[in-house]
């Protein structure tokens, strides 16, 4: 079996960048394709920041130090194993929808008190998780 160099796969999959469902399907073909496609899928997830599943993934990737920032708020973190990939490391841009996604996640978990304070704490934890997010948000 002849395989293409990774650069060729990258060029092909980058042409599918605007077709999220096709890229997602390609990521399920095999491990090799998955390793190439995942960074492309997660490069610019701005259309998905309002999806609470994405916020759950972000929260799952927080380390113990970053989670410690959130202890005073008695948040219930998703009870799943850490993701296979460090998805957040592939993100190159963030928009205000991330904050909307955090609000939606908080509401879906029944969190009501000190809403702005909790939202800010989660944002700070997510920012602490990735220096790239700090640079992008100019904070």
Automatic annotation (TrEMBL):
Domain F-box: 3-44
InterPro entries recorded: F-box-like_dom_sf (IPR036047), F-box_dom (IPR001810)
Protein name: F-box domain-containing protein
Organism the protein comes from: Gigaspora margarita
